[in-house]
Amino acid sequence: MRMNRKHLFPTHLLYADDILIFYKATMQNARAIRDIFLYYGVISGQDCSREKSQLFFAKGILLCYQRQISRALGFSVKKLPTVYLGVPLFAGSPRAVHLAAIKDKIINKFSRWKGMQLSMAGRLCLVKSIIQSSLVHTMMIYKWPGSLIKDLDKACRNFIWSGDINKKPSFMVSWDRVCGIKEERGLGVRSFDMINEAFLMKLAWNVIKGKKFGYDILHSRYLDEFGRSRETLLASLVWGWIKQLVLELIADSYCLLGSGSSVYFWDDDWLGYSIANKIGIPTFLPSRLKHTMIWALWSARNKCHFDGIYLLGRAVLAFIKSSFVEVDSSSTKMGHISNISSDYMVARRIGVTVRIRPPPNLDSVYWSPSAYSWLKANTDGSAVGAPGQINVGGVFCD
After folding, report:
1. Pairing relation of β-strands 7-9 and 2-4?
2. Helices (DSSP H) in 223-359: which residue ranges?
3. In Å, how far from its chain's centre is CA 309?
4. Predicted confidence (pLDDT) per residue in 33-86, tens digit
5. Which of 62, 73, 63, 61 is nearest to 28 (CA)?
6. Does residue 298 contact residue 311 with C-beta atoms inside 8 Å?
7. Structure confidence by residue, pLDDT tens digits, 83-130
8. What region, left, alpha or beta, does residue 209 occupy, with left being phi > 0 and alpha being psi -120 to 50 degrees?
9. What is the C-alpha separation between 193 and 184, in angstroms, rounded?
10. Are strands 12-15 and 18-21 parallel, antiparallel or unpaired?
11. Measured between alpha carbons, how far is 97 from 311 in angstroms, rounded to an integer?
12. Residue 52: strand, helix, or coil
């Protein structure tokens, strides 16, 4: 994983015994990857299968470069669309032609079942346990075209009522009622449109959270620090159809503060923007210096509100600068900076004069064993409260 223009970008992905490698299409990189494979084979005794390995090039790569890289690695060149682990991979938005093969497999399953000889309860069980679960992987990734969704719902509806997907029976209950939950007198069947939207909503929520691998890549590329959509032209096969779902989830979500341990009053997005940015705190400041400046402004506000002391702009600025005083790192007093070079550089950048103290003198302490015929005693104690519980201990060495 590496950073590219402040965005996460994977260099490789591992799944079971498969590996996906992403690299710039140059002969230098191709030779380096070939040497890595050869070295790995010498060390481990395993060799990659060149017959099963394939190369996919982005648009704009000249055909002569593709042939050179293919010969250097010994891999064949393949183009999209293709299928990996049962999921079709293609460029652009999903169309009916990309997913039609999956729909046809589902339709063929119906034809192999003798639905006319099964009871309605048996047909319902097949639809819920086999048909709807077969499309989980692709519906978790792609927004299915409406025409395919309509064909699948029609096949399930006809199979449940008559046992034949090509026979349209007279329906006693509407399909929307059948797709309701059992508590609402439905049969617990889910329409494929509802399943697809539910999975994409979960995908959009994981992108907003950005805590799992893969989702953090989309989060860093398409969302800002507050979870809002970036104005970007970066292309993505997934982001195009979950963008609207992300915006809907953000608009309908709220935050539970809980203990407040992960809440930052000045930096969090409370009003569509952070309060620190609203009052003009420089964004280049580290968080500790930013909080120091905010503390100084807050103190100036309290002087005005409670003590009746009105500070003009220059006085407030002088008050802020006076708060940046160099102290020991062990100090817990607010309004100070730490003894590190980055804080000094930022302080000078905003016009603060920094006093750098000389380093303390260090005295060396050595331990030596006790002399012959002497007994050494090392003791220590601690107390909780005054008065309070006391514990003492000691070690005696000869």
Report:
1. antiparallel
2. 239-252, 275-278, 287-306, 313-323, 341-349
3. 48
4. 999 888 988 888 888 888 888 899 888 888 888 999 999 988 988 888 888 878
5. 73
6. no
7. 887 888 887 778 888 888 888 888 888 877 876 777 888 888 888 888
8. alpha
9. 19
10. antiparallel
11. 70
12. coil
**What kind and span of H or E run contains 391?**
strand 388-397
- The token duo for 286 is 């580290």
Contacts of 393 (CB under 8 A, 6+ apart): 379, 380, 381
3-state secondary structure of 229: strand
State the CB neighbour count (10 A cutoff) for residue 331.
11
- Residue of higher predicted confidence among 360 and 113: 113
Q: At what angle do helices 63-73 and 27-44 cross, to 10 degrees?
A: 20
Q: Whole-angstrom Cα distance, residue 222 to residue 233?
A: 9
Could you report the per-residue pLDDT of 202-211, keeping only the tens digit for each?
Answer: 888 888 887 7
Return the structure tokens found at 230: 């970036």
Q: What backbone torsions phi and psi does residue 219 show, to the nearest 5 degrees?
A: -65, -45
Query: Exposure pattern of 13-32 as b/e (b: 16+ CB <10 Å)?
Result: eeeeeeeeeeeebeeeebee
d(CA 278, CA 283): 11
Q: For 222, list phi and psi in degrees, rounded to 5.
A: -120, -5
Q: Rg for the chain (alpha carbons), in Å?
A: 33
